[in-house]
Amino acid sequence: MTRLTENDIAGIEAEWATYERRLEELTGDDLLTLAARTLGIDPETARSGVRELRVGAIPISSGEGLIGGFADSLASIAGHLGFEADVLPADVPGFQLAKSGGFDLFIWADDDTYLAENILTGTVGENGRATGRGFATALIRMAARKRLDKRALVLGAGPVGCAGAETLALAGYEVFLCDMDGEKARAACGALSGCTPCTPDDLSGLPLFECLLDAAPTNDFFPLDRLAAGACLAYGLSGRRKAQASGTIPFSSARLSCFSPPHSEGPDRPFSVIAISREAD
In this predicted structure, what is the pLDDT of residue 53? Predict the structure, then answer.
């Protein structure tokens, strides 16, 4: 899982208006509507339902320790979506309070796991799968607004990439799931209709892509040369770092934002980009 730094999450609370404006420009949806679409829930039902639920964010000190402000950022996200949200005590006392203090859901993450649990139903949401589904839904919405072909490249056959590939395939996309480990990509595509496994070496022999979901956790591979003009991209923290390192996609100082940069390698290659700063793979 990509471990965040304090700089990655600093200032989230102050950026929601900008985030929502750019998200709606790119996808036609605000964040709550996009989340509801991802889950197959009527957005207005979701909007009224969240107001009745209380969320607790629990800091966890195991592993490499607390990331300053992380639990606060989770509470900020939940509060922005309309939940009543609080930061609870760290570790076991936080879990105890979540289950005995009138909370309906709680969220926590350590170095290896990032979960949300519904106390009322006992259901658990895992960040990797949730992120992949959310990225893919945003990409589908962007691509539909631009009337792009239903054909997408997904980088990374981990939890995020597999969930994204599944979501795209179920939406009728022809999906190419690319991983440096070809066997991993083949295994992931095995039970998924409309999914073709590939490795980075295979991409040069394929037509350019109009849709890219980058769920690869490394900074080693980012195939800007395989994207068609007007392509839509969805990627998280490591993708943002790759783009910044390449010097081809400009980013503002926002830590959780959507961007529509004017061009990449040249003025004839405009991209629409949704960049989300939390991922696991």
Answer: 94
